[in-house]
Specification:
Elements (H helix, E strand, L loop, with lengths): L5 H11 L5 H40 L4 H7 L2 H5 L2 H14 L4 H42 L4 H24 L3 H10 L1 H7 L1 H15 L8 E4 L4 E8 L3 E6 L4 E5 L2 H4 L3 E2 L1 H5 L3 E9 L9 H7 L8 H16 L14 H15 L10 E4 L7 E9 L4 H18 L13 H11 L1
Antiparallel strand pairs: 1-2, 1-5, 2-3, 3-4, 6-8, 7-8
Length: 423
């Protein structure tokens, strides 16, 4: 019995058992539709419960990860939905052999559903492809293909929409593509951010400007933290206060931002901070002060050597050293600067292969800035701040030993002491 004569034969059988007329025709259609649906559900059940179970077992036994990701993203699960719709598409003629209008309508609905299912399968596959890349390559290189995946998704959704309209309106696909050409200006306006994001994403990737995991700071966008996601339209940054800043992708190409990756990949993280010395405390070193400072471990070689050098020079000048301005003399701020230089060079947490510099900056109304410039071997933020704080804890504590004072604006306590002394 072929598909074409199932309906007449079934109707004839219904007549033999006493069901005749229009009721037999309706009942015949109901029975056939029920049979088609039953076969479809059975095929769907077998596909999902049997074939998918076999696929999952095979996947679990393999040593690769890409197939596990495809299963997790339900690529095979969504693909299995094609089976029942194909059965309906090719068997609906049996239920309505004399009604081509209904057959065509149902077939169109089936084809549109098939387009939707295939789009869902492609969407799941692209999600899986993105995760496969992240697991195998992205985590090592800090790169992402999410923006490109999103572009492919947009193209796939547009093609799916055109295909569905083509099926529904019975028009050629070229008819709608021609219409899209006339709507180019509107489409450019609608997808402006996506197009800019795509171009920006390509530039970011090609020039290796931003990777996932990079620490970037962009004050104009209130962003200062770690890049967590690079997508077609946005770049997400988790700030140090755990807030999330969302930056348009193209903004990272057109605007200024700092990427601290170079620091993290280099041999050290820079320390560049100064302490201000009260200018009134700067003076020539007295013999008593030099004797005390020469007992410092970091200066025990420097002071005798420098003193001998100064004495030889003064003798060549035949200068009267009883007068302060005659000849050379060591200053407390100069010896202090040398002490800091030696202190940094012997600090095991400072990278001595990189620049180490202790210098005086231009004096201001707030004193003489004594700047420490160097690079810490320890680069993580919390540990780095601890290293930097330890250095300046020591600096601030040792300054009085050189008979220097740190500049500080007067406080209420200073005023109270001044008034108390006058009284």
């Amino acid at each position: 019995m072929t598909g074409e004569n199932i309906s007449p034969n079934l109707e004839a059988w219904l007549n033999t058992i006493g069901i005749k007329g229009s009721f037999s025709e309706v009942l015949c259609v109901i029975i056939i539709i029920t049979g088609i649906l039953a076969v479809s559900f059975l095929a769907d059940f077998i596909t999902k419960k049997v074939l998918l179970a076999i696929i999952k077992k095979v996947v679990r036994r393999t040593h690769t990860t890409w197939d596990d990701i495809l299963v997790k993203k339900k690529v095979f699960h969504r693909f299995s939905r094609i089976v029942p719709i194909i059965i309906i598409y090719y068997s609906i003629n049996i239920a309505f052999p004399d009604s081509q209008f209904i057959v065509v309508l149902i077939k169109k609905a089936a084809m549109i559903y098939l387009v939707v299912v295939l789009t869902m399968v492609l969407n799941a596959f692209l999600n899986g492809l993105n995760e496969i890349y992240d697991v195998t390559i992205g985590e090592k290189k800090g790169t992402s293909i999410k923006s490109y995946i999103q572009v492919v998704k947009i193209i796939a959704f547009i093609i799916a929409a055109i295909s569905a309209l083509s099926i529904l309106l019975n028009k050629e696909v070229g008819y709608f593509i021609t219409g899209l050409g006339a709507m180019t200006a509107v489409l450019l306006l609608i997808f402006k951010d996506s197009i800019l994001g795509l171009v920006g994403g390509i530039q970011l990737t090609t020039n290796d400007m931003v990777r996932i995991g990079d620490w970037i700071s962009m004050p104009a966008r209130n962003a200062d933290g770690t890049v967590t996601e690079v997508s077609l339209n946005t770049v997400k940054v988790q700030n140090w206060d755990n807030t999330i800043s969302t930056i348009p992708t193209y903004a990272l190409v057109t605007e200024t931002f700092n990427n601290w990756r170079g620091m993290e990949e280099s041999g050290g993280r820079r320390i560049k901070r100064s302490v201000k010395i009260d200018m009134n405390s700067v003076k020539f070193c007295s013999p008593e002060l030099l004797e005390k400072l020469s007992k410092f471990y970091l200066l025990k070689d420097y002071i005798p050597s420098k003193s001998e050098e100064i004495n030889k020079y003064n003798k060549t000048l035949n200068a009267d050293t009883s007068i302060v301005v005659n000849g050379l003399r060591m200053t407390n701020i100069g010896v202090f600067r040398k002490y800091l230089d030696q202190y940094l060079k012997q600090n095991e947490k400072i990278n001595t292969d990189m620049t180490i510099l202790v210098r005086q900056l231009e004096p201001t109304e707030n004193g003489i800035p004594m700047e420490i410039y160097g690079f810490s071997k320890i680069k993580p933020w919390v540990e780095f701040e601890a290293v930097q704080s330890d250095i300046f804890d020591h600096v601030l504590a040792i300054i009085p030993e050189f008979e220097l004072r740190v500049f500080q604006n007067p406080t209420g306590e200073d005023f109270r002491k001044s008034i108390g002394n006058k009284n």
